[in-house]
Design brief:
This protein has about 140 residues and is mostly helical. The chain contains six helices and two strands; from the N terminus they run ααββαααα.
Length: about 140
């Protein structure tokens, strides 16, 4: 469910918003809602920013490093007994605070980040299968 909110933008900002919405093919309200959602998340999790990926998606990332999903994946790859922010930070070349920031974001948006990890693994599997099919042609 959504509720209407009347927001007035200064003319130059409204023109830029309208131009952007037209270029990406969405309504102005969709752009505003997405921007506000990201801003509220960044406010709640200082050190988190949103970056545009090569596919055009916007994903949460640590401001000084990799996307949150990749830190979460590294966390999962450490054995349970060695899974701590200091070790993960050392592995990734980040600060412990960066890892803590990513873990806090992951904890709040667990489903979203877990889905990104799953998609990344599926993409890796697809790429490996394509490479193996290509390598098989060398034997022909």
């Amino acid at each position: 469910m959504s509720s209407p909110t009347n927001v007035r933008f200064p003319d130059p900002l409204d023109k830029r918003l309208a131009g952007y919405a037209r270029r990406v093919g969405v309504k102005k309200s969709t752009v505003v809602v997405g921007a506000l959602r990201e801003w509220l998340r960044m406010e709640a999790h200082p050190g988190i920013v949103f970056v545009k990926t090569v596919t055009g998606e916007r994903r949460a990332a640590v401001a000084v490093g990799p996307q949150v999903w990749s830190i979460a994946e590294a966390w999962q790859q450490h054995p349970a007994g060695q899974r701590n922010p200091a070790d993960v930070a050392a592995t990734l070349g980040l600060t412990e605070r960066d890892v803590q920031t990513a873990l806090a974001y992951w904890a709040e948006y667990r489903d979203e980040i877990d889905q990104l990890i799953d998609r990344h693994h599926a993409d890796q599997d697809d790429a490996l299968a394509a490479w193996e099919r290509r390598r098989a042609l060398d034997a022909v």
